[in-house]
Design brief:
Blueprint (H helix, E strand, L loop, with lengths): L1 H4 L4 E2 L5 E3 L2 E2 H11 L9 H12 L6 H11 L6 E2 L1 H10 L7 H11 L7 E2 H9 L2
Antiparallel strand pairs: 1-2, 2-3, 4-5
Helix pairs in contact: 3-6, 4-7, 5-6
Length: about 130
């Protein structure tokens, strides 16, 4: 409905909203899938969990993944902590995120629950495996 999507999209000849190649029904379906907790909105962590697997269709070469990891591993301890994830998120266009949001992002890929992202965890995120 116009109330739900506001000024986004355009109305086709049948009066239905269109969003590029997506219909209003397509967009609603995508939003419902991303809204895991069914709150009616997509929280930051839901967005990350939904978008991360869809970002890259072809993974970059291993040396580029390592270079990207090393760029943000500011203290060179072999892990990305919350402060480093804040820097990464800013460079990816998320803007300024809070420490809690950074910790939520870490928890998405932190397989061993140590509160930081190892290179292997980062690589699995990037190549979506």
């Amino acid at each position: 409905s116009d109330d739900e999507f506001g000024e986004f999209g355009s109305t086709d000849t049948t009066g239905d909203k269109e969003f590029g190649d997506f219909s209003e029904m397509d967009v609603t379906s995508i939003l419902n899938e991303a809204d895991v907790d069914k709150s009616g909105g997509i929280e930051f962590d839901e967005f990350c969990k939904f978008v991360a697997p869809r970002l890259l269709k072809v993974p970059p070469p291993a040396n580029e993944i390592k270079a990207a990891f090393d760029k943000y591993d500011k203290n060179k301890d072999g892990f990305l902590g919350a402060d480093e994830v804040i820097s990464l998120a800013k460079d990816l266009g998320f803007g300024a995120i809070t420490i809690d949001q950074a910790k939520n992002m870490i928890s998405i890929v932190d397989d061993n629950n140590d509160g930081k992202i190892s290179f292997d965890e980062f690589k699995r995120l990037v190549i979506n495996k």
